Amino acid sequence: MIVCEGYIPPPLCGETKGMYPETNTLPKQPYPDRSAAGLVEFHSDSPEETFALGMRIAGFLKPGSVVALRGCLGSGKTCIAKGIAKGLGINETLTSPTYTIISEYQNDPALYHIDAYRLNNDEDFDNIGGRELISGGGISLIEWSERIQKSLPEDAITVSLEIEGPVSRMIRVDNIRGLK
Ligand SMILES: Nc1ncnc2c1ncn2[C@@H]1O[C@H](COP(=O)(O)OP(=O)(O)OP(=O)(O)O)[C@@H](O)[C@H]1O
Ligand SMILES: [Mg+2]
To answer: What residue ranges define each of the domains in the chain, with the CATH number in brackets?
Structure first.
């Protein structure tokens, strides 16, 4: 594998403790001060259920929405992103933009599927025009959003996925009013 100089590979599951505090210290109950903003917990027992939740989330998105997808390798970020894309009416299958970093899907509004896995920080994201892109009128889905936390808008929707077992995921969605 060719690794860029200075590139810090993201950690594997279980190695993240302390690095991305919010990923590892997710409260079991909604944050008391954030519940009004709509932190909701879901339990998924299959990729299909996660995909279906993505389709539901799509119904709440509007031009300019940014969805920050958090969680370790294989937690289901791409799976839920695929569901969101389907829910937005995109029939093309989303593929993980790990190498391309940003994939654009023609839609109205445009959909940007971003994978920050290979970025070191917010500066890298800025340098490839990412910050400008997500502040436009498209809808952005950002995997490994922990790596570019400072570039996210305040009203970003956060979807945190936690592996509980081989097919079991805890999914916490923050900042969508009305999602149940
Ligand atoms: N309940 C579930 N929800 C989502 N995915 C699940 C579930 N149960 C098992 N899986 C499996 O977990 C994997 C999730 O892969 P996916 O590519 O969506 O993860 P990811 O978070 O995008 O990983 P990466 O960090 O590598 O991009 C798939 O192989 C999927 O079949
Ligand atoms: Mg992925």
So the answer is: 46-174 (3.40.50.300)
